[in-house]
Amino acid sequence: MQETTVSFKTVGCRLNQAETARLRAVFQAAGYRVVPFGAACDVCVIHGCAVTAKAEQNSARLARGAKRQTGAFVVLAGCPVEAGGRAGHLPDAADLLVGQTGKFQLPALLAEHGFPSVVPGAPPALPLFDTARAIVKVQDGCDFNCAYCIVPRARGPAWSRPFEEIIEEINSLARAGYREIVLTGANIGCYEDQGRKLSSLLRRIEAVPALERIRLSSIEVSTVEREVIDCMAASRKLCRCLHLPMQSGSDPVLRAMRRRYAIREYGAVVAYAASRVEGIGIGTDVLVGFPSERAADFDATEAIIAQGPFSNVHVFAYSLRPGTVAAAMKDQVPDDEKRRRVARLIALAREKRMEFARRWIGREVAVLVEAVNAAGAATGWTGEYLPARILPPPAPAGAKHCGQVRIAPARNRVTRFVPRAVEGDTLIGEQPIC
């Protein structure tokens, strides 16, 4: 009997990536064979994004393209269905539209369309990742209702996974060989289960045997960021990288955005992180050209980025997102002015990034090796969220080097090395000596 095949395409955030890994496991347990996206298959699942109108349109475009190129039964799942419903451009994009709840019952839903029934008694499987790190969903939904954001509509109110369920999954992933896990959610700073918050979860994950690194997705200021910083300062495994979305350096714009902090409070958290955690990488998000953003507001944002200890700045131009409060706001910033402001901040962000990378020349860093090429060069990411390339030794493998032996790094292992140069933001050095 020929196997039924399924492929997946993920659009958007780490939360979507974590859920796609779960979907792949669900389909595999149901008797499907997972094949690469773009290959001939029976079913193709586009796990879409709706954070912007463009992302939603791109998700629909991918669904149409998959139908045209593979002839598969195409499913469009997730946020676009919740945010866009069955109106607009979605109906002709796929054979089946499935929202957040239904997507994890897809094999059963597909059985109603002539596909094989779910294998009875199939054991639950671990999420299936193609990467060296595993992404673990700990929370979903958001109650913050920022003026520009569609997430509360697309993912609903905030809720948290059971504490012990998360620990059990991470233990299983570590036993399966994953050395780094990334915790993700729609708003992970709101995690709480029976009084245990994110900091309690981090301390418990620290004790998981065989797990070497824990990485966090972004944390909203005004949740538990200081507790997390204290955990990071004391931890042996928590990556020293913290992403704190700022969005604007102007208090009037932050109020218009319905953010829950003033810029002074945000700056205090960044300063606290820099003082508590040596060498920390601090990332942020900036939304440029929000309705009513004046030149002075943008200048304030630019000054904070220039003066702050940021290592990674994501710059986005505001785009009108139907279904949000901001979509009806007046004083929209002209597109050409938004492009000018975005270009200035991207240039500044690049300078800050390279400046941070240069600080690590001559200092030992730890890299999770994600790939090793035929020449023996390894690539991966440091705990501070910098890309790294570890070059093979000039002599043949196993040859003596100053009386010691250089050992080629292995994929999915954390390797320590000393960068000797930087190319852009990539740290470059030779294989470590054992």
Q: Can you characterise this structure?
A:
The protein is an alpha/beta fold and 434 residues long. The protein folds into four domains: 107 residues, Methylthiotransferase, N-terminal domain (Rossmann fold, 3-Layer(aba) Sandwich), CATH 3.40.50; 109 residues, Transcription Regulator spoIIAA, CATH 3.30.750.210; 92 residues, Transcription Regulator spoIIAA, CATH 3.30.750.200; 66 residues, OB fold (Dihydrolipoamide Acetyltransferase, E2P) (Beta Barrel). Helices cover 32% and strands 23% of the residues. It has twelve helices and 23 strands. The strands form seven sheets. A six-stranded mixed sheet has the order 21-16-17-18-23-22, with helices on one face. β14, α11 and β15 form a beta-alpha-beta unit. α8 runs parallel beside α10 and α11 packs parallel to α12. The longest helix is centred in the last third of the chain and has 24 residues. It is globular, with a radius of gyration of 23 Å.
Task: Give me some keywords for this one.
434 residues; alpha/beta; Rossmann fold; Transcription Regulator spoIIAA; six-stranded mixed sheet
